[in-house]
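Input/output pair, single chain:
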Amino acid sequence: MSRRDSMLREMGIAPLWRDRASPSPQQATVEALPDAQAPAEASRPAAPVRVEAAPARAVTRVVTPKVTPIAAPSSTVSAEGLGWDELEQCIRACQACRLGERRTQAVPGVGDREADWLFVGEGPGAEEDARGEPFVGQAGKLLDAMLASLGLARGHKVYIANAVKCRPPGNRTPEADEIATCHPYLDRQIELIRPRIIVALGRPAAQTLLGGEIKIAAARGRLFQRKGVPVVVTYHPAYLLRNPQDKARAWEDLCFARASVV
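Output:
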């Protein structure tokens, strides 16, 4: 059994099925939109699920949505012009919002600073807060398996970050002003990395990156644009642990993202 097949089994996709030739995605322009709120991560043990082979999801042309932003763009934080080391120092020392009061440590992100792929979640959970790294624990293991299924690995052409850098108390949903305050950090990370593609993991991350109300079912299979960078929306690993029946759909989304890399 190949390493890729082993990773697909780890994702709970069995019997194994291989990606069919994916159509080239139709490029569609969607205006970059302001931030949106995002709940903190949670995780539960995964249960294996059997799925049957399915063709790649058809590409849908996207039109610019008319939405009402749910997070104000203003912020007391400025990350403009900062290099990587300065940016991470600012994130670790930040006390610009209430999230800095009870955190153990800020979680800037991890990975290749010249990554082709940027994966964005919503916020650190308890284990991330303790270890200072995003996506650890069961959700992190599943994300690593998802990466491996594409021939990717954490830290190699991949960067992983969150919309907010500090854990909300009790893993509650971050408030709109907290997201708005923290957003310049993510924005600067995107500017520094200059990824070829961004994968939004879950609805909160998608809303933060694209703005307005985003529904996963409607956003899947669509190629969005954020300041010229393609954005693909899929499920958060923690959601997949609770709903393993959607792992096959997540695999479709990853194949679509791979076909979208320019």
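The beta strands are 13-14, 49-50, 110-111, 117-121, 158-162, 197-201, 224-226, 229-234. The chain has a mean pLDDT of 79.
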